[in-house]
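Re: [ENG-882] Designed sequences occasionally contain unexpected residues at chain ends

Forwarding the minimal case from QA. Structure tokens:
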């Protein structure tokens, strides 16, 4: 999971809102009381809505001083330009300044974290931790920093760390934001704590028309890994029914059936997609081919799928494809077609095993001279049991 651009835009908005006046007309500072009240009202109206209204943390009332605020403005300008080199020395100066208050240090660290997020994840995480430890930001930015830290931890495969961070956010804020609970559920899934992942994900997905497809897929995967295939299938069927034209939803359903060893229903899904012209990738045809080859008495259907895939130039005309086609023909008693497929597959093989199979089929069909030729080629290229090829040469 990558950190979205929204975090950068949010931080930019925060920085813009925090700019303080550092130089100006002294008379402007002594504006009338009425104007001051109007400006205060305007500023209050522009304040962002509380994202964590149930937070137990008391928001600090600190702000930027005029002197240090001027330096923060410089960092903000560098932030907007994406200029890390310009921002870093100013940030270091403010952070080390004993006169800087907790807010000034925290906002600088938050801005620096955002600057490093795409280039140096470790430094970004360090700045986020320091921003939180400084304890000077408003709740939106304080807990937003923790959420961003959790996203980075998840991105870096630190699933345990991401879980600890999200647990803290949820415990201290009682937030019901589904995105945060999904990040937590994803962390639990990655830690193979599947039942806990389900408990985290199910409440934010059930009955939620705004639930994103990737959230639903994560819940389905959690059900499947938890050994609850019926619930995974039920959810996948609901999604597929709601989106009959969504190829990905249909393939997800087929995969759920496969995980529960329900091959016939998986084949049904693939065949619906095939008839609709939605099998457009090589792996789609190979999956359906394999499903038929691994099903009793379905070799003729497998041959049809492989032939179609080759005709559409979706399947590669390589050894694997032609060898599978030969087997499909052979086990559906289409020996002449099997010979033709083996003849295409054998020259493409890395060893002589396919030549040996061809020699055996030719021998069974009474085509002795051709069988001996194939057996010799098998020996020349190398086989695990050369005695079988030699026996065919003696016939």
């Amino acid at each position: 999971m990558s950190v979205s651009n929204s975090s950068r835009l949010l931080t930019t908005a925060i920085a813009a809102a925090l700019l303080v006046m550092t130089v100006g007309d002294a008379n402007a500072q002594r504006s009338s009381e009425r104007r001051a009240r109007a400006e205060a009202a305007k500023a209050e109206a522009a304040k962002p809505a509380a994202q964590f209204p149930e937070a137990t943390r008391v928001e600090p009332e600190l702000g930027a001083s005029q002197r240090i605020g001027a330096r923060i403005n410089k960092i903000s300008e560098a932030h907007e330009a994406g200029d890390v080199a310009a921002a870093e020395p100013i940030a270091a100066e403010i952070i080390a300044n004993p006169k800087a208050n907790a807010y000034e240090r925290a906002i600088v660290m938050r801005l620096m974290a955002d600057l490093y997020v795409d280039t140096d994840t470790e430094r970004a995480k360090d700045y986020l931790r320091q921003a939180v430890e400084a304890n000077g930001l408003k709740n939106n930015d304080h807990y937003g920093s923790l959420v961003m830290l959790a996203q980075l931890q998840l991105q870096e495969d630190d699933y345990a760390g991401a879980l600890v961070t999200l647990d803290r956010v949820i415990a201290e804020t009682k937030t019901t934001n589904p995105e945060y609970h999904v990040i937590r559920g994803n962390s639990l899934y990655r830690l193979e704590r599947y039942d806990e992942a389900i408990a985290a994900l199910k409440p934010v997905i059930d009955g939620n028309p705004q639930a994103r497809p990737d959230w639903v897929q994560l819940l389905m995967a959690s059900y499947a890994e938890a050994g609850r295939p019926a619930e995974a299938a039920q959810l996948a069927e609901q999604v597929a029914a709601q989106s009959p034209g969504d190829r990905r939803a249909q393939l997800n359903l087929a995969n759920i059936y496969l995980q529960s060893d329900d091959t016939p229903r998986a084949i049904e899904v693939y065949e619906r997609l095939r008839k609709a012209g939605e099998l457009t990738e090589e792996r789609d045809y190979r999956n359906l081919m394999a499903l038929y080859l691994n099903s009793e008495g379905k070799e003729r259907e497998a041959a049809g799928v492989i032939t179609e895939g080759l005709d559409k130039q979706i399947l590669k005309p390589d050894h694997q494809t032609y060898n599978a086609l030969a087997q499909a023909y052979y086990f559906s008693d289409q020996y002449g077609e099997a010979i033709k497929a083996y003849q295409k597959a054998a020259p493409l093989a890395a060893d002589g095993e396919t030549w040996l199979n061809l020699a055996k089929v030719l021998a069974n069909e009474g085509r002795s001279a051709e069988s001996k030729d194939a057996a010799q080629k098998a020996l020349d290229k190398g086989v695990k049991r050369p005695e079988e090829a030699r026996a065919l040469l003696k016939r």
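QA comment: On inspection the terminal residues look reasonable. The two ends are 63 Å apart (CA to CA). Proposing we downgrade this to a documentation issue.
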